[in-house]
Amino acid sequence: MTVSGRQRIDRVITRGDFTLDGQSFTVDNNVWLVGDERTVLVIDAAHDPSVIEAAVDGRKVSLIVATHGHNDHINAAAELADRVRAPIALHPDDLALWRQVYPERSPDSALRDGQSIPIAGGALRVLHTPGHSPGGVCLFGAINGDPVLFSGDTLFRGGPGATGRSFSDFPTILASIRGKLLTLPAETAVHTGHGDDTTIGEEAVDYEDWVRRGH
Questions:
Q1: For residue 174, with 0-12 CB atoms within 10 Å meaning exposed, 13-18 middle and 19 or more buried, which class applies?
Q2: 3-state secondary structure of 82
Q3: Which residues of the chain have pLDDT under 50?
C-alpha cells in the first residue's frame, strides 16, 4: 500500500518462523516503510533483508525500529542494518528477547516512551505498550495529515496481541491498550505487525469483550 502525497507508507510482507518457548510457527509479517522518495524509516525488519532492501529502493534509511524483540520482528534487522548502513532501535525491556537472536550484538539505541522519531515531513511518537512483551512499543503520528498507528503485535484487527508465552501478560496488554491506544482519535488507521489494517474506533467497541474472553 502506498499513501499518496509527499509522505508515503509501504508495506512489505515477509514469511518465516516465529520461535519461542521451544516451539516454532510459520508466520507472515508486515514490514512497514515510512518516509518519502529520499528517506525512509523501517519498522520491524522481518525474515528477509533482501526483500526489504528492494523496497527501500535506494533511499536513505534513517532508522530500523523494532516494535518488540520477538525473533520474527528482528531476524532481518542486523543484516539489513549492515546493508543499508542504518542503526537499530529497541526498547531496553526487550533485550532478553533480542539476545536470543543476537547474543553478541546490541541494538544501537534504546527507545523510550514519548520519544519523537523524525520521519520525512514529520515525526512518529513512541508509545511504550508492554504486555505482548515487556518492551513492546507502538508508533503514532500523522501521515499526510491523517492519524496513523504502527501497532506491532500490541493491537490487531480483532483484539490484543497474544499473551500466552514467556515475557507476556494479558492484564498488562489490556492496560497498555486502554491507556495508550484507545485514547487516540477513533479514525486512527492501525497498521499491524501481522494481518490486515484496522482503526482505533473499530477496535475500541470490543474492549469489554476482550476483557471477558480473557485473551
A1: middle
A2: helix
A3: 1-5
